[in-house]
Amino acid sequence: MLDIRELSKRFGHGNGTVTALHEVSFSIAEGEFFTLLGPSGCGKTTLLRLIAGFSSPSSGSLVLDGEDIAPMPPNRRPVNTVFQNYALFPHMTVGQNVAFALDALGRPRSEIDPAVDAMLTLVQLSHLKHRKSVELSGGQQQRVALARALVAKPRILLLDEPLSALDMKLRKEMQVELKRLQRETGLTFIFVTHDQEEALTMSDRIAVMSGGRVQQIATPGELYKNPANRFVAGFIGESNFLSGRAANGLVNVGTAQVAMPGAADGPVTLMVRPEHVALGANLPHALNLTGTVTQVVFLGTDSHVHLALPDGTALVARVQKSLNGGRSFAEGEAISVALPVEALRIIADGEERP
Ligand code: ATP
After folding, report:
1. Going by CA atoms, what residue is nearest to atom 17 of ligand 1?
2. Bridge pairing between strands 334-340 and 256-259
3. Residue range 106-122: mean pLDDT, rounded
4. Which parts form a coiled-coil structure per UniProt (predicted)?
5. H or E element, residue 118
6. Rounded to whole angstroms, what are the CA distances from 140 to 73, 86, 133, 173?
7. Core vs surface per residue 46-85: b (16+ CB within 10 A) or e
8. Which end of the chain has fewer CB atoms < 10 Å from its terminal CB, N or C?
9. Looking at the DSSP assignment, which residues form a beta bridge with residue 159?
10. Of 8, 42, 49, which is best to mutate to test ligand 1, by the most ligand atoms within 8 angstroms of its C-beta?
11. Which residues neighbour 321 within 8 Å (Cβ) at sequence distance 6 or greater?
């Protein structure tokens, strides 16, 4: 539905030039919940603004339903945006805010009234239709902003960190709510966030960005299981990294060795998630190491056991009490550490760069 082709954006001139996006290319399918995820400054807002038409690309194209929309002004694009600060009209009622886009298009009341009522039902705010928007809670304002953006039935809804002003509990509720809205309307959402958990919770697919480049595009499960490089592995979930050396299908870490057929000879970076680190175990088809417990952090249902390997490498193991029969770990304790081969990933050491 939307094809982004070699899109670049530079700001400034001469020596002061900042390249906010470097030839970014990908496609979004109709009805997808697609997320742009990355740290501050990675270019996600720049990309969203290019899609909305608030700024124009330095090069590349944006093709929506087969048509290049790059030359189109924002109000002609079948795209709407929900901003972080909601940008509601404070002295209008909820109903007037939601009706605004259709009023501006000069649609008849007989069309506007039922459309507004349907949107208010969708966001569960029918009972507040006549309330002024300044008299609403943050979560309610967010729902009005969504209803207002959806009423004109855009082809794509762009959402720029729309939940970041809400407290944690409300934010979690709105994540579920947004996902429901997207499913029920069948619309295409492009959502911007720097919060990996939020992205994993809601998205069909995620584009992980860093330094103005897309590092990987995949489903949440695939990003977690098979990160393309060290940046993605470090940004999505928690990761342990080990340095090793591959030769003839064997990977050596310190004095331990494991068969990993297909590993290219030479230095390698291995990644393993904390929940796949087995403590007090020596397993077949695993890297069997020894370490020293440096710290135990209680997290409620789980604990994190921090370890140091003989060469100083730090590792974290996530330990579920229920699976370990209440075994506890003492700081300073020497312990065997098994990393099963099926949980080890050889990853590119770094990220996509110019
Ligand atoms: P955040 O999460 O902090 O909003 P972001 O990922 O959305 O970050 P962008 O706002 O897209 O990042 O910015 C990408 C880069 O482009 C940054 O280095 C930023 O400083 C630069 N940039 C953005 N807008 C402009 C501008 N109008 N003029 C100059 N540089 C800009």
Report:
1. 41
2. unpaired
3. 91
4. none
5. helix 109-122
6. 30, 10, 9, 12
7. bbbbbbbbeeebeebebebeeeebbeeeeeebebbbbebe
8. C
9. 82, 191
10. 42
11. 301, 302, 303
Whose CA is closest to atom 26 on ligand 1? 11
Does ipTM surpass 0.90 in this model? yes
Which residue in 56, 351, 43, 326 sits closest to 212, CA to CA? Answer: 43
Q: Ligand 1, atom 24: nearest CA belongs to which residue?
A: 46
40-88 per-position pLDDT tens digit? 999 999 999 999 999 999 999 999 999 999 888 988 899 999 887 778 8
First to last CA, the chain: 28
Residue 264 has pLDDT above 80, yes or no: yes
pLDDT, residue 323, reads 54
Measured CA to CA in angstroms, residue 24 lies from 180, 189, 347 at distances of 29, 19, 22
Q: Which residues line ligand 1 (CB under 6 A)?
A: 11-12, 18, 20, 38, 40-46, 194
Q: What is the mean pLDDT of residues 252-279?
A: 92
In Å, how far are 9, 12, 51, 234, 324 from 56, measured between CA atoms? 8, 13, 9, 32, 56
Distance CA 212, CA 174 (A): 29
